[in-house]
Write a structure and sequence with these properties.
The structure is a homodimer of 136-residue chains.
Chain A (H helix, E strand, L loop, with lengths): L3 H15 L8 H7 L4 H13 L3 E4 L5 E4 L8 H8 L27 H17 L3 H6 L1
Antiparallel strand pairs in A: 1-2
Helix pairs in contact in A: 1-3, 1-4, 2-3
The structure holds a DNA duplex (30 and 30 nucleotides).
Chain lengths: 136, 136
DNA sequence: TTAATACCCTATAAAAATGATAGACTAATT
DNA sequence: AATTAGTCTATCATTTTTATAGGGTATTAA
């Protein structure tokens, strides 16, 4: 399941994209408009900032703006930042690989093979940009 | 992520399938061979029994056998029994539908649309039988 | 220059989910 | 009757998730 955190992150980025302008958008505004608990949102925004998805402007009149071309911000990207791997088992994850420590031979593990196939079907769907998402 | 419980269930069914014979297989055997904590396994087996995936034979010499044609037991089926929905958000689940209670209009929610597409890509991969899984 | 706005950061807590164990009970076999 | 093995309920420990609290810092505008 997608965490609320990740869903909030997607909503936040979508909001920042659709309301983009020269002036930044405050966390307070996003919190109210998207009904995301303020402090929880701050936390998410900090994580997105760390990963250079958003930029922040401090002080009165400050807020957040997208840090890069919205065509380069994908849902998969946001999910990986917030929730970690897309794959349903860690031994088939590209970026968060971990041995499951259970099967004797990872190369021949059939559960692994099935979930590798699953992952390869999931990724293309999620690798769509926020621009694409906005257009759905 | 797939829960350990679901992974254990898949392993258990695969074991029952590959070691099927007129005599049932005890939970103890499965527990040892697949390194699944015994009491945890009992729990999983009970749930699988409730959903008529396995049958049990009580008493000495008893154990478990598959309750139906292995071609009709799919990984998706097991996952749904143990973990619930395949979909990553409940509002696009076929069998475990729940409103997310966040978006104003479910018909137009773009996050929903994307995750509906994701679900429709995932299901066919997981709707493969245990026979298919064994052959991978 | 000071009040207000708004981001920054650490810590903590409440709740839910996950993974596992305990123990008493029932049924069947040898 | 002793042993094997499934049944069932309860409980527990750990981790993850979902927040909240509160003090700080930077910037702007009155």
């Amino acid at each position: 399941m997608l965490s609320k955190r990740a869903k909030y992150a997607i909503k936040t980025i979508l909001y920042l994209y659709e309301h983009r302008s020269p002036t930044p958008i405050s966390a307070k505004t996003i919190s109210e408009k998207e009904r995301i608990p303020y402090k929880f949102l701050e936390n998410i925004l900090r994580e997105l900032k760390t990963h250079q998805v958003v930029k922040s402007i401090r002080g009165a009149g400050g807020g957040y703006v997208l840090a890069k071309d919205p065509n380069d911000i994908t849902v998969a990207h946001l999910m990986r930042i917030i929730d970690g791997p897309i794959a349903l088992i860690p031994c088939v994850s590209e970026r968060f690989y971990e041995s499951c420590g259970e099967c004797e031979n990872e190369e021949t593990c059939r559960i692994r093979k099935l979930f590798a196939e699953l992952r390869s079907e999931m990724v293309p769907v999620l690798e769509k940009s926020i621009v694409h998402l906005a257009g759905l």
